[in-house]
Every structure is written in structure tokens, then in C-alpha cells.
Amino acid sequence: MKEFHIEVPVEPPKELESLFLPIPKDYVEDVYRKDEFLVLVGPQHPGSGHMRLIVRVKGDIIQEVIPDPGYVHRCVEKIAENRLYIQNIPLVERPSIMDSANFNLGYVRAIEAAMGIEVPERAKFIRTILAELCRIGTHLYDAAILAVFLGHTTGFMYPFGIRELICEALVRMTGARFTSSFIIPGGVRRDVDEKTLRWVYDATFAIEKRLKSFERIFIKNPTVIARLRDVGVLSKEEAINFGVVGPFLRASGVEYDVRIVEPYEAYEEVTWDIVTADEGDGYARFLVRVNEVSQSLSIIRQCITSMPEGSHISEQIGDIRGSFFDKFADLVLPAGEYTTLTEAARGTLVFTIVSDGESNVPYRMRIVTPGWLYLRGFMESLKGERLADLQAIYGSFGYFPPEADR
Amino acid sequence: MISSLFEIFKSNMMQIPIIQPIVDYLMQIPVVNFIVALILWRPFFAVVIMPGLAALLLYLLYIVWFERKLTARVQWRVGPLEVARPIRGAIQALADGIRYFFQEAIVHREAHRPYFVQLPILAFIPILLPIAFIPAGEVVGIKSPYAVQLVVAFLALIPITIIAIGWASNSRFAFIGSIREALIYISYEIPFIIAVISMIYLYGGGDPYLAVEKQSIVPGAIMNPIAFLVFLITMLMATSRLPFEIPEADQEIAFGPFVEYSGMLFGLVMTLAYEKLYIMTLLFVILFLGGWNGIYIEALGDLNAPLWLFIKTVIVISILAIVRSMYARYRIDQTLRYSFSWLIGLSIVALVFGIIVGWVA
Hints:
The complex is a heterodimer. Chain A has two domains: 15-68, no CATH class; 92-318 and 327-405, Cytochrome-c3 Hydrogenase, chain B, CATH 1.10.645.10. Helices cover 48% and strands 12% of the residues of chain A. Chain A has helices at 15-18, 25-33, 76-80, 88-93, 100-115, 121-149, 153-174, 194-219, 222-228, 236-241, 246-250, 258-261, 282-305, 324-328, 370-381, 389-397, 401-405, and strands at 37-41, 52-58, 61-68, 183-184, 187-188, 336-344, 347-355, 364-368. In chain A, the strands form three sheets. In chain A, strands 1-2-3 form a three-stranded antiparallel beta sheet. A three-stranded antiparallel beta sheet of chain A has the order 6-7-8. In chain A, strand 2 and strand 3 (61-68) form a beta hairpin. In chain A, helix 7 runs antiparallel to helix 8. Chain B folds into two domains: 1-40, no CATH class; 110-360, no CATH class. In chain B, 67% of the residues lie in helices and 0% in strands. Chain A binds chain B through residues 37, 39-40, 45-47, 60, 147-158, 161, 217-218, 221, 223-224, 226-227, 386-391, and chain B through 71, 74-77, 172-173, 176, 242-243, 245-246, 249-252, 254, 324-334.
């Protein structure tokens, strides 16, 4: 279609100046001079999460999206510099409370790497179960958000109903629905008895059964497939270049999973498949996570059936009952920089602790969350799609602003 | 003059045997007899009581509750319960209505104030006018051989008020919502009108009496199933129900044209779609499900026809309520493509089918 330009004095609305937008001033004027439209989605919008998306649309087609994150920045890294190492464990879970065990695990493994603590086999298996339970919980949560972004309220309620089983399993194992702070340097806080493990084993089958009804109503729903297929496509090269991580990278056909590349905990001792897809569109990103849930259920079952006997905490730490703070309060890491890679539910999670070797608080702690890593790919995949697809792609990425902002 | 009016009312009163003794008694009291005669005057009864305003309000109370309850049952929830526990929260819609009524109605600075406030009320005119033309047996407001065409014409006015609401709101999301409303308006209106025309050809005229009489043995849904299907889908589109809840997609554009409304004005615009659904379903029942045909109960007399029409309407809407918990929302371009290819094609097939059946019969 041919465009005609007419020179009319344009005055962008005044309110755009007072909103402190992270864009140059002439950008707004440029948009208004062309036949384009600037839509500010969020931070108070049912489909934006805790962030603002500055969407430049031409007709119904998105030209460019500029993210304005940081509305839920909680200074986790800075607060961590003023707390004891052991007090940081509940703190690092907060960025993503759904995915708490994986965040906990990444931090604790950095400490263990610094101190050279060997973790007993039983603790490794319990940690793996916790991590996988949290992974399922996060994937279900993201599926629910995707469903409600597509206007499918039943698809919103079912995963939350299923997630109750995960929460119940976590309650029985750790005592809290999430953010249990159960993983500590050297192992886990308490041993998990046989009866509880049996319950979790049975719960995996209950989850699988309920997932079938979710599949009928949402995953195989023709309207959902119509909304997600061929939407927000990231090719293999693009996904690698934009630094997309986790299931979203695997949905573009890249077989990368930290659990395979640098195995930690009990992932070497169980058999599971790495789930990938080739399409790289919204539906592939969703399906990869759905299939990962069944892989995670299988990992949990294998962990429970082959759970080794032994202590739940390392010999180097000893019994922590009644002497938890005596053991851990004066933890001082040797000087140096310790980095761990963890496969959190939404992707690669990097924890770096810098210690000066004499204080009992970290000199610097760095968290690079998966949400922050794939924000670029998320924004790039929106280009050329329709305005209504903004929420569909948002949901297909499962972007979680508190996690990205830390 | 009052006595002449009274004579007019008395000459055309509803004959309901079951309440006849009470009516006879009330007719002897001086002022009350005038009111009773007015209420039971057939045109007044049709427009204000049933299937008119009072039935509409009753239906609104019921359908909001039923839809929420049904959706909750599908979604492993309980649904509204706390308002009137013994009757399972059945007056939840009333409670919400009272809340809307007393809430502050904010008119924001950018809005075109007169239109912003007037349009939700003006939108009721095209909703209430069709009721005057929809007959239920002998109970009818204005008898017209072109009633079906008139109802369709009035229905076509409703989206214009919604687009005007979006314009008066003067907000980005309201603007996008009005454009979506305009696009979807064109895309459903054409197949909808063709489907209705096919039924008019089938019955040989736009007279509801003729249509209902022709359906005394076989309902219109069986005589022209394609028009039935097209009408059903366009009804979902016209009343912006899922999967076509595009103009007011709350996750995408935050209720579209109605984004700036609050308080009582929001209560008014929120029920617009439900009222439109009611009118369309009345038309649907008359054209496809045999209208007021039903088992005649002697004791109810003239009330039979409106009651059957109302019951059929409510059943159809209750069945339609389940799509809300089954489907996700389509995109606007998908809906347009679907409607301009499949729906128009189907409606033209229905038209040919209707002409052939009407010609044979």
C-alpha cells in the first residue's frame, strides 16, 4: 500500500512527557508524524504484568516493542550484601517464589563449591525431587497465565487446581507450600520419610491424570492452536543470537539444558529425554513446557524408587538439629568468585558469589535470572505480529517480571 | 378521557383463567381497576411485563448467576455463594447491581462529557424498541407484518452506539476497541442478515405469526439447518461472547470501548451485550425453534405464548453460556477471514436452500 506524507504540525500528548518513558523525546514525535500509534501497555493493565510495554503499532501490526521493566525491582543483590550467607537463602527464593527450590539450589551450590562440601547421595535425590516439583509448579503457573491471556478462564483454573497437589507435596516434604528454604549448604534440612515419598509418588499419577483433562480443554483446543501457532516465531539462529534460554531455546530446536551439559545433583543417575521442538513459535514454546512436565514427573518417580539410604546432611556439617545457627552463622567463604549454572524452570540461572575471604557476608552476589536473559528474544519475537498477539506471545514466554527484575 | 382510555384497555385485556377471580375483584375498586386494566392490556403487557422489560430484568438476574455458576462448575470451583447462601448465591447479580449503582461514576477529563454520560442510556433505545415488535401469540406491542425485518434493523443500530461510546471515551484502548467493534460488526452483520432473509424466503414473509404457523409441525432449525448454524455463530459474534469476545477483550485492551466507565454507567454498558443476546435469542426462537408453540395449558390462557417464548429463550441462552468456559479468544483477523469466507459462503448456501424449500412448500 502506498503511503502519503503530509506535513502537519504534530503535538504528542502531554501525558507522555510525565510518564518518564525510557525513550528519546523525538521518538514520540516521530511516531506521531507517521501514521503509527504508540500504545502503552501497563504497568496497570490486565495483560502486561508488572512492567510497561511501549508498543509501536502501525494499523494492527506491531512495529517495535520497547520494554520498561523494573517496576518490581527489590534490590535482592544489594540486600544480600548485608546479610549472613545462611540468611540469604530465604532472600534468593523471593525473585520467583513458584520456582523457589531451583533458586535455592543455585545459591547453595555456589556456597558448597566455595567450601568444598560433599553432598550425600540421599540429599541430592531429595533436592532433585524438590527442584522438579517446583519446575512442574512453575510450568503449570505459566500455562495458567497463558490461558487467561487468551481469554480461556477454564485453562486458567485447571493448572492452579493441579498445582495444589504440588503445593501439598511440598508441604508434606518441607513444611511450606513454596519458598520452603529447605536446601541448605551440605544437604537438606530434614530427612523425608518413606510415607511422604510414597504420597509424592502417588501424587505424580494424580497430576498426570488431571493433566489429561487440561489437555482436552486447553492444549488441544482449536482456538488455542489458532492463536499460538505461527505466532512469535524465533528461528534457531535468532534464538541463539538473542540469548534466549531454557525451554524457549529448546522450542527453537537447540538442545541445550544445563541438567545435561553440566549435570548437578541426581540428574546423571536418572534417565530422561531432553524435550525440543523445531517450530520456535508460541505453540512450540508451550508444548515444550507441557512435555517437560511429564519428563519431570518421570524424574520424580525414578528418584523416589531409587532413593538411596544414608544421611540427609554432609559429614562435614554434622547434625544440625538444635544447632542450626551455631553451625552456619559464622560461615565465611574463602576469597574468590564462585559461579554456578542451574536449570531453573524458565531457563538458565546464574548465581555468582564474590567473597573477600574475611567477612561473613558476600562481598557481591550476582543473580542473572532466565527472565532477564530472554527478554530480548521476547521483544524481538513480537515484531511483525498483531497487537492481539502481544498477550499470546507474552504468555507463551511465561515472562515473570518479579523474576527478571529481581 | 380517562374513561375512554379505560375502555381501550378493557377491550383488549389478557385472559388468564387462573388469576381471573382476583382480576374480577380488583376491577371493582375505582383506581386500582385502571392500573390492573393497564397492566393486563395486551400491548402494555407484551412490552413491559413479558416478554418485555420485567422478563428482561428477571433474565438478566438469572443469566449472570447461571453463567458464573456453570463456569465455576466446569472449572472445579463453587462460584457465587456468599450472597444468599440458602439459594446458592442466586441474587449475586442483584448485589453487584446495587454496588454499581452506589459506586462513584468517574468521568475522566479527556472524555467528551455529554456523550460519555448519555450514550450508555441512549444505547437502550435500539435494545428496547425491538421488544415492541416481537409478538408472543396474541400478546403483542405493535403488530406488523415486517416485524422480523424491523428487529434486525434495530439490532444493527446497537454497535453504532458502542462505537460512539468508544469515541466519547477518548482513550487509546477505547479507540482500538471501537475499531474492533466496527470490524466485527461488518463481519457478522452480513451473514446474519442473509441468514434471516433465507428464513423470510422460506416462510414467505417477515411476519412472525406466519413463521410460527409454518413451524407448527417441523421447527425452522430442521427446515434450514445451515441458516440455523449461521445464525447461532453470528449471535455469538454479535454479543461478543467467547470465542469472539474481541472488541472487549479484557486481557488485551481492557474491556475496549468500556475501559473508562465506572459505577452505574459501567453496570449499564456491561449488560448491553446480555440484552442484545436476549433480543437476538427471541428472534432466534421465533425463526428456528417454533416461537411460542408449546403445550397449551388451559389455566394460563393468554399467558401461554409469552411463557413458552420466554422459557425457550432462556434455555437457548443457558446452553450458549457454556461456550464461555470452552473456548479461547480468536484474533480479529482470524475472525474476519473466517466470517468473510466461511460464514458468508454458508449463509449464501442457506439462502439458496431457503428459497428452494420456500418454493417447494
